[in-house]
Specification:
The complex is a heterodimer of chains A (162) and B (190). Chain A is α/β, with parallel strands linked by helices and 162 residues long. Chain A has one domain (4-158): Rossmann fold. Chain A is built from 7 helices and 6 strands, in the order H-E-H-E-H-E-H-H-E-H-E-H-E. Chain A has helices spanning 4-14, 30-37, 48-60, 71-76, 78-87, 112-122, 136-149; strands spanning 18-21, 41-44, 65-70, 93-98, 126-130, 153-158. Helix content of chain B is 41%, strand content 18%. Chain B is built from 8 helices and 8 strands, in the order H-E-H-E-H-E-H-H-E-E-E-H-E-H-E-H. The chains are: A alpha/beta (162), B alpha/beta (190).
């Protein structure tokens, strides 16, 4: 839906200092462009729960991190994000890849479609769903709203394959 | 050595600009000592993630040393973080693993495979350039400064005695307020 260059440029405009990430087949290819531009550091971690807590350390340390993971990793992240976003009240923003939202050919009946949005609601994460390229500007708008309110938020990107 | 003796040595050796992250049993003992603005007591925590928060702090504050005082049960919950730490080249990060073989704060139930798990080998296999192991307090007191000044990332395994019947750490205050004060302290001391 979006190129790595588009995303890397956007992160620079938003002042994102670090992207803490575990890849999937949609968001993973963005890493190279982000790393090549050099103004936003890519921090690769081994599991998604780590990503929230590394981002928490970055935020506490005065930086502006963003967590970029797939929805399956969101499911894995529960306690880590609960602690970072709700105990310590750190306004960490995230980009969540929504597996199978646009196409279920690879994984017919993928239960990511059942659980992703209820899980985001359960964790009280204010999110916007992006399903087409024309919505690109909504990413920056939602980020600005979340920053202004000092609260965490997410952009959920519809994905077409597993 | 006792966990308290081990943590007292860390407290004495830390520099004024160092960030010290504590969790679980090390947090309980740390809070009995005089506190400084760059102490981050992870109570409440997401168990296992002290090393991850430490990594984030180390990347955010590369001119400071970040010391994470972790438990063995907590370390087992997030072994992958050791690989993330070396991948990120967090040379200013020191991980101290307090190994007592039990989940002390929940009543001293054994961790999986106590006495068998080898954190030293795991750290070396994860790419840590500086790895240490201590069992007696005199050696630890003598070498703690060497450990903190080693080329990082650094891991030191501290074999400590389990203490039974002592409650786990209590939160020293609302986490969000402490987070705000901590970040402000970093800015003031930059």
């Amino acid at each position: 839906m979006f190129s790595g260059e588009q995303i890397a440029s956007l992160f620079e405009e938003l002042g994102i200092t670090h992207v803490v990430t575990v890849p999937d087949s949609t968001i993973g290819p963005w890493q190279e462009a982000i790393a090549q531009r050099g103004r936003t550091r890519v921090v690769r971690v081994c599991r998604e729960g780590e990503a929230w807590q590394v981002a928490a350390g970055l935020q506490l340390g005065g930086k502006t991190p963003l967590v970029m993971i797939q929805c399956t990793g969101l499911f894995e992240s529960g306690d880590a994000l609960r602690n970072a976003l709700h105990d310590w009240k750190l306004p960490i923003f995230s980009i969540i890849g929504y597996r199978s939202y646009l196409n279920q050919d690879t994984l017919p009946g993928d239960t990511c479609l059942v659980f992703t949005e209820p899980v985001l609601d359960a964790w009280r994460i204010d999110y916007r769903l992006i399903t087409q390229p024309s919505q690109f500007e909504e990413i920056a708008k939602h980020y600005a709203v979340c920053r202004a309110s000092g609260k965490p938020g997410a952009i959920v990107i519809g994905e077409g394959k597993a | 050595m006792s966990a308290k003796e081990a943590i007292v040595a860390v407290h004495a050796a830390r520099g004024q600009r160092d960030i010290v992250v504590t969790t679980m049993t090390p947090a309980r003992d740390w809070m009995t000592l005089p506190q400084q603005p760059l102490d981050l007591v992870l109570v409440p925590s997401a168990m296992g993630h002290a090393t991850s928060i430490g990594l984030g702090l180390a990347l955010a504050q590369p001119e400071r040393r970040v010391i994470v005082c972790n438990g063995d049960g907590s370390m087992l919950m997030n072994l992958g973080s050791l690989v993330s730490i070396t991948a990120a080249r967090a040379t200013n990060l020191v991980v101290l693993v307090f190994d007592n073989g039990v989940y002390e704060v929940t009543g001293a139930q054994p961790i999986p495979s106590p006495g068998t798990i080898d954190f030293v080998t795991i750290a070396r296999g994860s790419g840590f350039p500086s790895v240490f192991e201590f069992s007696d307090v005199d050696s630890w007191r003598r070498d703690v400064t060497t450990v903190l000044k080693a080329t990082g990332p650094t891991l030191a395994l501290l074999h400590v005695e389990a203490v039974l019947g002592i409650p786990g750490p209590r939160s020293p205050g609302p986490a969000a307020d402490r987070a705000r004060r901590f970040t402000e302290s970093l800015k003031k001391q930059s």
